[in-house]
Amino acid sequence: MTDPLVDELRARYPRVALTHEWLSVPGGSEKVIEAILRLVPHAEIFCSVYDPAPFGTDITDRPVHPSFIQRIPGATSHYPKLLPLMDTAFRRFDLSGFDLIVSSNHACAKNVRTPPGVPHVCYCHTPMRYAWDPEFLLQEDLAPAARAIVKPLTAYLRRVDARGSKQPTLIAANSSFVAGRVRDWWGREASVVHPPVDAARFLERERRVADDAPYLVFGRLVPYKRPDTAVQACRKLGRRLVVAGDGRFMEHVREAAGGDPNIELRGRVSDEEADELLATCRALLFPGVEDFGIVPVEAQAAGMPVIAYGEGGVRDSVLDGVTGVLYDDPSAAGLAAAIERFEGLSLDDAALRAHAQEFGPDVFHERFGAALLQGFDAQSMNRDDELMRTGDR
């Protein structure tokens, strides 16, 4: 069965270039890439580095063009250290002959040179956060020499990011929070198109929550997600907590747990174990600030409430008092108070699952497909405005 939207996009844009930061480890932004490819299956991909091994045929069965960075030994594993080269890598791509540029951006993918008269639609996961938010890098365990270059490096990256932000014709942000960053940091307006979340696979999962069920932290253990805050809050209240995930912040989390028998550090878990945790844990604790945050939507689809610090993408995905609790104090005491508030609520399972479906792949398909079509119209309007300014009619 054909898709009229896909047919219209193919007819309007016979050749499409899709730029993405790097293709090395599948994650949330790569799921967005796969969803974009369902709209423009004829697209060619341009990225800084490419390792086909962990990807399926949605990615591998098409032309993928890595940059010159690919030729640096170890680049597919150590690409974050090569960030200062990324702007040059993307600007060197020759995209002449394409009818549409789509960038999947959180660093430099939008910085490609857009050919004159060609629409460029940017799906913005975030502007370059480590360039604009000094707190982001300060949370990391940096060596003294690395800390010494943070200030000049971030100043350079801000200039690169600001210049690149002028390339897209149209910007779609993955949350209202990111749209605010686009406005504040880039001086541009962005529509909001939430990323696709496969909520359907969780909707029929049965919830089996005992009176003494633990709370849950789930995902990569990195500083900005503040998993240690969840540990501290649960220890303060004497509540059970399961921490499912691993990462470079694990030792900090272990120190925060202090051997408390109520705190279980599971490490990385299988899909089957994750499903069991979603079915049996009391609520998801989400104390960090995410650009969007797919895990809270998946939790709600499984009928699990979310207790989240009320900044970032969760303001779009969690309804306070309906599908969970949002709180304003980022400290462990603030989260502890939110847990106590949650324990006094009675939330409706059906409302949780219904809300999660608003972020499904079909919704993304329609909304981002409309943005791609709008990019053509926006490019035409920009060209007309330029002609009016120059008087060349």
From TrEMBL:
The keyword Manganese does not apply. Transmembrane segments: none annotated. Residues 211-345 form the Glycosyl transferase family domain. Keywords: Glycosyltransferase, Transferase. Residues 27-201 form the Glycosyltransferase subfamily 4-like N-terminal domain. Pfam families: Glyco_transf_4, Glycos_transf_1. The keyword Coiled coil does not apply. GO terms for molecular function: glycosyltransferase activity. It comes from the Bacteria. Its EC number is 2.4.-.-. This is Glycosyltransferase.
